[in-house]
C-alpha cells in the first residue's frame, strides 16, 4: 500500500518548480476497480497500479513499453522495432491461445493497439486487475483487465502544458556476419567437408580470395556489409504534445499530439496525430454530465518495396550493392550471379514499389451521473468507437539488372507487369451501460451495492481488390485502372457481426474499515455461441483483514499498515473463437463431371454448436504492508489460475479431409473445449522511499515466478507442430525435439554410435538415444526447453536532489529459451551468409573439438538434413536483464519560472534500451527480447532530449 502526500500552498523560492514542500497530511492512494474507484487500503483483490512518475520518465512511442518492468506478474515483450509495432502484454503466464487481457479505456472496450498509442501525458490512472477482482468484467476478463482513466482536468484557472522530446534510434543488436574473405574460405571448407574430406572442391580459388582481400577491384570482388548498406545509421523520432485543463462547474482537459518517427528503413516513416477532450459539467448538485472524445490517426508511408529481413540475411558479402557505373550489383566474386542480382534487398527496397497505410480510431463516450438522495447514484453511459484501416500497396515494374561483365540485361531480374492491391477494414462498436449504486454507513458498518447491465453491438467490414498491368507505376487507385480493361484480378468483401449482453452486481461490506468482504456475480451472453451455450456465469468473492487496526499490532510502532487478503472467483474468455465458429462454412469449388468442369458447394470449415465458454478459476492470497513511517513497503501474492475447457482447434481424423492449420484463414477444424491449463505463481513487490531536506530517494523491485501446467487434453492426445508440443503434464511453450551431446567424433563413427542419419560424419551433431534402444529416431524426441519465462522481474531506482532528478528502470526475464535456426544461425542456409560466431566456434578438420559450439560447416543442401531437425543444439538462453531507461532531469527554480510566466519548466535526457546483461554466452548478436529464427527487424535503443513545461 502507498500514500499520496498533500502539501501546503507556500512556495520556497529556491525549490525546483516541481518539488514537494512541507508535508501536511497523507491521503491513501486511490486505484481503479471495475466500474469505479476505491482507496487502496480497502481493496481485497490483487490490483497493480502504475506510478505516473514512471510514465513521465519514459519518453517512448508506446505506452505499453513505458510500463515494462514496473508491475509484478505483467510480462511485456517487444514485437518488432519497426514503426507502429505494438508490444505484447500478458498477465500471469500464458494459456493455450488468446491470452490477451481486456482493455478498458474510459469505460470503452478497446484493443492492445489503442492502449499502446495513448499518450502518457493524458493518463490519470492505470490499474491492472489480476485475480477474481476481474470477475466484474466476466467473460472477457479471464487473463486480466487493464483499466485506464484519462485526465479530466482540475478545477481553477486554465493551465497549459507542453511536452516535447527528440530522439535518435539505433539497433540494440545487428547480426554479425563474416566479411567476404572469411566467407569465401568457409565456403571452400564447407565443400571440402561435404565431399567427405576427399579432394578439395573449391568454390573460390586463391586468386579470387586475394583480389577480394586487396580491395582493388570492388566491382568484381567486393566486400559488402549488407546491414550497413540496407539500414539507416540512425533514425529520428520527434514528439510534441500540448494540453489545456481547468474549469469550475465545467472541468475540462484537452490535448493535441504529433509523433513523427523514422524507420531504420531509409524509405519508411510514420506520422501519428492524436486529439483528446474530456469534460465534466456539474449541471446541479445532483446531476453531472461527462464526455470523452479521442481521435488518433497513424499513417505509415513506405516509399520503397519494404525490407525482406530473410533475404537480407541470405545475401552474401561477396555480392556488390551497386556497380561503379551506377548499375545495380550483378557480380559476385568475379562472376555474374543472377539470383542475388534479383534478391538485392537495397534494390528491392528502393525500386520495388511503395505502400501507404492509414489507421484511424475514433472513440467517444457520453455519461450522466444522477444522485437523487445521499448515497444513491444512477449512471447511464453510451460509448461509440470506429476503427478504419486502409492499406494500399503498389508493386512496380522493374527494369532488368545489367550484367556488368557483358553489358547485357539479365532477364530474370525484370518485372514486366506491375500490380496494385488495396484493402480497407472498418470496425464499429456501440456500447451502452446503466449502473445504479447505493452506499450507506450504519454505525461501524459500511455497505455498498452496485448493479448494472450493458449491451454491445460490434460490426466489422472489409473489402479488398487487386489489379495488374497498370499504365503507370505508383497509381494508388483501383478506379484508375479502368483505362486498361476495367476488370480486377481480385475483389473480396466480408462482413461480420456479434452482440454481447451482460448483467452484473457487486456488494462491498466492511466493519470499522478493519474487516472487508466483497462479492461479485456477472452473467454474459455472446452471439458467438449457439443458443444452448450462450450464457456464462462468473461469480467471485474477496475478503481482507486490516491487521494494523488490531490492538495486538497497533502496539508495534514500526508497522504502519498490514493487510491480509484473499480472493476466489471465475472469469471467462472468448478470444480464440470466431464470430460464427458454431456454424459450418460453405465454400465454392469446382469439380470434374465427365468431360466438364462444374461449380459446386462444399463445407469449408466445420462448425461445432457444442462450443462453450472458457472458464478461468482464480485463487489468490496476498499480504500488503508498510513499515517505519511508510519508508518500507511490501506486497506478496500467491495465486493459482485454472483455465477449464480451454478453446483450441482439434485435429479430426485424417479421413475427413479436414485439416488443422496455424493460419486461421486455412484452418478447417472447429475450436472445441479441449483442455485444462493451470498457472501457479508468486509475486513480490518491495519498496523503499525516503524524503530528506533537499530531495528524496526511492527504490522499488518486483519479482514474479510462474509455473504452467497442462492438466488435461481431449482424448489425452498431444498436439504437435514443427517445434512445439502440447501434452498433458507439460507446459505451454514446450519445445519438442532431440537432445544433443556435442558433436560426433571419429571414434563414435568407428564404434557405430547410433546416428539419426546414416550419412552423418565426424563433426556433425550428436543426437542422444533417449530410450536406449540403440537407434536414434523419432521415438527419442522429448521436451527440450520452453519459450515462456518462468521468472520476470523489474527494478526502479530514482530520486531528486535540489533541482535535479534521476530515474533508472530495469527489467529482466529468466528460465526461458529461444529457438534460433535457419538464417539466424545456420551457415549457408538457403544461400545465407555465415555468422561470426560460427567462424569463431566451429568444428574443423584441423581442430576436431567435439564440444565446439558449431558443427562442421556444410554448403546449403550438402548434408544439411542432419541439422534440419528440431533439437536443443539450436536453443539459446533468452534470459536477460536490461536497463530499460535512464533519465536525468533538471527543473528550473520556481522563482526563475515565475519571472518568465511559467509554473514549471524541466529539461531532461533519456537513454532507452542501452545496456543489457544477457544469459546466452554463445551467439551474442541477437536481441534476447525479440529474437526470431528467420531474422527479424531489429529492436531499437534511443537517446532523447526533452522538456516538460507548464504555463
Automatic annotation (TrEMBL):
It is a multi-pass membrane protein. GO terms for cellular component: cell outer membrane. GO terms for molecular function: siderophore uptake transmembrane transporter activity. This is TonB-dependent receptor plug domain-containing protein. Gene3D superfamilies: TonB-dependent receptor, beta-barrel domain, TonB-dependent receptor, plug domain. Keywords: Cell outer membrane, Membrane, Signal, Transmembrane, Transmembrane beta strand, Transport. The keyword Protease does not apply.
